[in-house]
Amino acid sequence: MADEEPNAVSFASQFLENDAIAKEAAAARSRVLDQIERLDLQRHAWELEVHGFTVLEPERVGSTEFASELCRTAVAVCEKRLGQSIDVEFGKTHVDFKSPFGQVQRESTVLFEDQIFEAALMNEVVLAVVTYLLGESCTLVHQSLFVKGPGPDYLPLHTDQEESIGPAPYPPFAQVANATWALSDYTSANGAICFVQGSHKFCRAPTREEATNTSLFQPVEVPAGSVIVWHGNTWHGALPRTAPGLRISLVEFFGRWNAPMDPVQRMMPVPPEMLNRNPPRLATLLRVADPSPELDQLREVKLRAAKTSYYA
Length: 312
Description:
Blueprint: H1 19-38, H2 42-50, E1 53-56, H3 58-61, H4 64-82, E2 104-107, H5 115-121, H6 124-134, E3 139-148, E4 155-158, H7 162-165, E5 176-182, E6 193-195, H8 208-211, E7 218-219, E8 227-231, E9 236-238, E10 247-255, H9 263-267, H10 272-276, H11 281-285, H12 293-297, H13 299-306
Antiparallel strand pairs: 1-8, 2-3, 3-10, 4-9, 5-8, 5-10, 6-7, 6-9
Helix pairs in contact: 1-6, 1-13
């Protein structure tokens, strides 16, 4: 009794995490914010907080050659799956496309098609911004190609969050995030993506009237090679493409550790050589065992820490 601290406070253990979990959550926060500073991404983090989206300029995420090769590979994959050549110059092959997205060809689960898609996924700058939104334990829900042709259809305003966690109200912090590589120029005539600035703070999806109110559509025009990243709550849609040709993009859709994965991707076996040639982060993104036994042993600690920190 003599050794007890005076006025010591005692707590029941029911709701307390152990020290290892608390330390890992704090360490994760430091790592994520340190990386944002090291890569000089503070402005982009601020834009995500204020506007709900940000644009990473081409020179920030890679070379012109990389973006061009990524676009060529994307076209080749789309042609292979479509079973015919696509008309990149005039877009005639996609004028009559009918899909829930409008005049858009969507090809999912492209990660295993070519190593260049691995390189895009593991891009340090893009991953740093996504990690700022979703934490170190976030995973890849799907990686897909979208090819948009000329046509009359707007993509209505919507949120990505509603497809992942159900109806409003949404948490104010992101449960999912989108990183879209613009592989062709995004302009209004080319069918650019549109956002409603600050709408991530509404924590709900737009109503039907809001979703189709074209006065709310604020186009984001960016050159090919840019990456557009947004919070899962942010209202976004797209203009119809009025110019000839195709708008080509690679969409990387991420979720927190408990987000549902695309069922097709979940069934695809991850080749061991893919894990071996990439950093251990890839194993976390794909929800497979870490190549390193030491890292694998930390998985449970990290997942429990993710429940107590935005950044873990």
